[in-house]
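Appendix B: complex inputs.
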Amino acid sequence: MDWINAAAQGVLLGGFYALLASGLSFLFGVMRIANLAHGASVVLSAYLALWVLELTGVPWFVTLIVVVPLIAALGWVLQLSVLNRALERGGLAPILVTFGLAVALSSLIQELFSADSRSIPAPGLGEASIAVAPGLAIGVLPLLTFGIGILVIVVLQLFLARTRLGRAIRAASDDASAAQLMGIDTKRIFALAAALAMATVAVAGVVLGLRTQFTPVYGNLVLIFAFEAVIIGGLGSLWGTLAGGLILGLAQTIGAQIFPGYGVLIGHLVFLVLLAARPSGLLPKAVTA
Amino acid sequence: MTGTIPSAGFRVARSTRASKVGVVVALPVVGVLVAMPYLFPAGIQQSLVQLFILIIMGTMWNLLAGYAGMVSIGQQAYIGIGGYGLVAAANLWRVDPFLAIFVGALVAAIVAIPVSFLIFRLSGGYFAIGTWVVAEVVMQITSRIPGLGGGVGMNLVGMTALAPTRRIAYVYWLGLALVVLAVVVTYLLMRSRLGAGFTAIRDDPIASASLGVPVTRSKRLTYVVAAAGCAFAGGLLAISTLQVKPDSMFSVNFASYMIFIVVIGGLGTIEGPILGAIVFFALQQWLSALGAWYLVILGVVAVLLTLLLPRGLWGLAADRGVRLFPVGYRLILPAADVRRKA
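Resulting structure:
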């Protein structure tokens, strides 16, 4: 039963990692850049939600109404002011710029909210669980996280595949100059994609705040886990990212079941082994995203 | 005559006037630096060792990013291996600490070879995060080995026989020698075929590969050299602070420092990281009272410099033809000489 329990927890944790990774995966799919400020943005969202909650006393899910638009707007502004220029420069510029943003953001968070570890209070939610079978209980919060993770990935995928705007984003991503000839303002489209990616970052941040004690530097870990999920799954594929998140979650919980205390390290090692065995990931570019 | 290139009369220049003046200026500067322990108190020497560590780290990071186009945020793996290697060899095997630094560098170079085969499968920003994962793995494994002090780390014990003033002076000289070594090795590497190959790869990777430039092999060699260089910086850090701890020796802050140093000073030149390290060191002293704001400022400065002044502060000088370490080939056409004579 321990093993089944570990596997169930691993799958649920994997849904969380997929949620953390969806914005990173989406942005890479559109712009071919790895956003090194991804983790810092997730943590910023968590702090922002906590701030709203403490200021107004609303329940945690209401904070999404404030946090999602604000962080999405931040993505829009950053793309238009900084990232589009970095993309034009090409080469190392996008990496260096997003790294600079990551350092500035996480230090700013530390100045504004102190280095203490915090979490978003959600009375009752953290402890609630559903007994599935004798000896196997599934927490409501992990289940909710899992559901949100799947939902975000499905919505992003459907948006890209089915909507007019999604088609414009794919066009701008595949061939920017051809898309411009077709009347697409690629800079605005990229700004829109960044806003959308940051909206998922905001959701991930609030969920992170509910699940864990976070600190200003927690973004480092978020970036690493999200990156591992993206690479295991295959670059440019949202379904792959979901699969990658599940594998990482399972590796960590089953690893911790075998060697208590070594879960995260085993997750890293499984990632490195998969990188050696399947460098292009599980579902490389399965869908143009 | 017009339209034909004269078979004789043009020449290829590898040095510049600035580089010749530079050698004349640099020798006395190095001379004064060598004499420092006789002239200045220990505190200044210890500060300069911190600066030397920054120069070595910046120079190695620039070797990776500025020449070979690889952005690493995981060089702290090798800084940590260098520091731990030194302390482990000195404490456990009773190697003289000043020789033990080579043990750390050797271990780092050996570790870097298999690691390169893994992370070279990634590119761009994902290469960067991949190097970071490797650094995390190395740190977590190190902090779980009881013989290496686990999560607490170790103190370097072999140095207590030396009187403090003597110890500080020796560490200072070691640091100075390592800075000179790092700069000279980078200079020689970039003047060699390897450097010419990287110039070709930067301009057109596919064309240069088809002309026989060994792209991956050149990158791997550079990666291994940079690993050894960062291990020297880590060894220097350990021998100057006399201790190693997992979270400080493998800190991702080192990656930030390296990036800031090179972005401020200028990517892809040998002078840039030296200048950048000096500016960064000064900023560290002046802005330390600001707490985390100083990293906010540095982060924003890095973004602005990347976009507005991508070749950094040294780029401003290089635009005026000042090159202290010329690694390229410049063609001097006779026309220019003729015009000068006329």
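Chain A touches chain B at residues 32-36, 82, 85-86, 89, 91-105, 107-108, 110-111, 220, 223-224, 227-228, 230-231, 235, 264-265, 268-269, 271-272, 275-276, 279 (CB under 8 Å).
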